[in-house]
Structures are given as structure tokens and as C-alpha cells.
TrEMBL record:
Residues 113-189 form the Methyltransferase small domain. Methylates the class 1 translation termination release factors RF1/PrfA and RF2/PrfB on the glutamine residue of the universally conserved GGQ motif. Its EC number is 2.1.1.297. Keywords: Methyltransferase, S-adenosyl-L-methionine, Transferase. The keyword Transcription does not apply. The gene is prmC. This is Release factor glutamine methyltransferase. SUPFAM superfamilies: S-adenosyl-L-methionine-dependent methyltransferases. It comes from Arthrobacter crystallopoietes BAB-32. Belongs to the protein N5-glutamine methyltransferase family. PrmC subfamily. GO terms for molecular function: nucleic acid binding; peptide chain release factor N(5)-glutamine methyltransferase activity.
Length: 281
């Protein structure tokens, strides 16, 4: 029996992944093939058109993805803005919607020469790394509590010159209070009864990075806002990601704190209210 071609293998992989409920079966099939071949996804499409054979090991990776293991855990990398990040078990896989939050932090940092920026609960280091990468001269810090996530962040952030601190976002950097120009965060915020539907999230993202504490998931977002207030200079910029349904609650808690001006809800690229920004009085 003749060996399968790459085109046939991709078609079969897409069929298996679709049957398993993977949201983007063809794209994932191509990315898995790209990982096996050490090529770009674009190059994989070209090879498929030219009759290239199925690469060894592709079927095994497709089976793993069909079990809803995150694509990023299989390939060991996630893409965020201009960065390729190392990720795997124990760290939250960065999401495209968070790129909007990072953009607002980057824009704020660019308005201040030598801006001092901190990412609270950095996870893989996606936001902190993007600020360091896109704002030359910025003094960037990142805080992470989880030992596993810290290890991934260290690998990603060390080449970018970010100061990584192992600590709790509620109490970290007490020696730096009132010195930051920008505080940015994507803290855990899911309520305890809102278990994510996607197996990739529910079974593979660490609980420490998902659930915000309290009946409403707002315990850690509240703590993040409190830490932002103590860390920022007067006039400093704060932006925090949250669930769409929490937008009103976050604006209310910032207004009640009495130390914020220009409180504004920030929408992601799909128009969902996924972050809130404010200026420290």
C-alpha cells in the first residue's frame, strides 16, 4: 500500500480533529505538520500541493490534539503579538484577546520616557515580554506566584531584560510602591461555578490562573486593583483584563476606591467589554 501524501494526511487529520470538536481543525492540522517538518504553515500548504509525503510522527500528534490537548502544549510554543513564547503544562496559554490589553499598556508606556511598567500575574510573560519588546528603554517588571508558570516566564523573559519576581500580586514589590508609570494585569477572574466549556482550558490551564476567588470571581481582580493603586505614581496608568460580565463591577469597584480618574471600559477586537483602564489620582 502506497504511503499517504501530505495532502491526504492533512485532510484526514482535519476530519479527525473536526470529529473531536476542535474549533479550527484544518489550521491545527497544518500547524502540527509544520511543527513536525520544521516549516511554516504556509510552506506546509505549498508542500501539500506538490505531492510531498506524509511526515513521520504527524498521526501521533493529531491523535494527541484530538484528545483536546492544547495545540500549544504539543508544539511547545504560543504566539502573542510579535513574540514566540515557550509554553507547556503548568502555565496559562495566552489568548488573542489579551493582545488588546497589551496594546493599551504599550501605548501608555510609550508616552513616558523610560517608563517603569509591571505586569501582575504574568503567567508565560506574554504581556511583560511584549512591553519590553515594543517599548525600547522601558523598565519592565513581571510578578508570578506559581512555580511552574515562573519557570516558563523566566525562559521567555530573560532574553528580553524583564525583571521577573516570584511573589503574590497582592503584596509583591512593596519596596517599589508609588514608582510605576504603568500597571497591567490579566489576573484570574473566573467564578468558581463557571467551569470553562473547552477541554483545553478546563483540563489543561492551571486552576491558579483561571479562578479569581470569591463567589463572583472578583477577589483577585479587586486585589489587583488595590496593588495597582499602591504601585502607581500619581497620573500612572492601570489596565486590567476581566470577563465581559464583570465590566460594570470593575468600574464600580474602581470608582468606590476613590483614587482613580478617567475610568473607562476597554473593548477587545470583537467589541466585547474585556478590560478596564483608569488613571491614578
Amino acid at each position: 500500500m502506497a504511503a499517504a501524501s501530505l495532502a491526504e494526511a492533512l485532510a484526514e487529520a482535519a476530519r479527525l480533529l473536526a470529529a473531536a470538536g476542535v474549533p479550527s481543525p484544518r489550521v491545527d492540522a497544518e500547524l502540527l505538520a509544520a511543527h513536525v517538518l520544521g516549516e511554516s504553515a504556509g510552506r506546509v500548504r505549498v508542500l501539500a500541493l506538490t505531492g510531498a509525503p506524509e511526515p513521520e510522527g504527524l498521526a501521533e500528534l493529531v491523535s494527541e490534539r484530538a484528545r483536546r490537548v492544547p495545540l500549544q502544549h504539543i508544539t511547545g510554543k504560543a504566539y502573542f503579538r510579535h513574540l514566540e513564547l515557550a509554553v507547556g503544562p503548568g502555565v496559562f496559554v495566552p489568548r488573542p484577546e489579551t493582545e488588546t490589553v497589551a496594546q493599551h499598556a504599550i501605548d501608555a508606556a510609550r508616552r513616558v520616557a523610560g517608563a517603569k511598567v509591571v505586569d501582575l500575574g504574568t503567567g508565560s510573560g506574554a504581556i511583560a515580554g511584549s512591553v519590553a519588546d515594543e517599548v525600547p528603554g522601558a523598565d519592565v517588571y513581571a510578578v508570578e506566584l506559581s512555580g511552574l508558570a515562573y519557570a516558563w516566564a523566566e525562559r521567555n523573559l530573560q532574553p528580553l531584560g524583564v525583571t521577573l519576581v516570584r511573589g503574590d500580586l497582592r503584596t509583591a514589590l512593596s519596596e517599589h510602591e508609588g514608582t510605576f508609570d504603568v500597571v497591567v494585569s490579566n489576573p484570574p477572574y473566573i467564578p468558581p461555578d463557571a467551569v470553562p466549556v473547552d477541554p483545553e482550558v478546563a483540563e489543561h490551564d492551571p486552576e491558579l490562573a483561571l479562578y479569581g476567588g470569591g463567589v463572583d470571581g472578583m477577589e483577585l481582580p479587586r486585589a489587583t486593583a488595590d496593588s495597582a493603586a499602591r504601585l502607581l505614581k500619581p497620573g500612572g496608568y492601570f489596565i486590567m483584563e476581566h470577563a465581559e460580565v464583570q465590566a460594570a463591577a470593575v468600574s464600580k469597584l474602581l470608582a468606590a476606591a476613590g483614587c482613580w480618574n478617567d475610568i473607562a471600559t476597554v473593548s477587545d477586537l470583537t467589541g466585547r467589554e474585556r478590560a478596564t483602564a483608569a488613571i491614578r489620582r
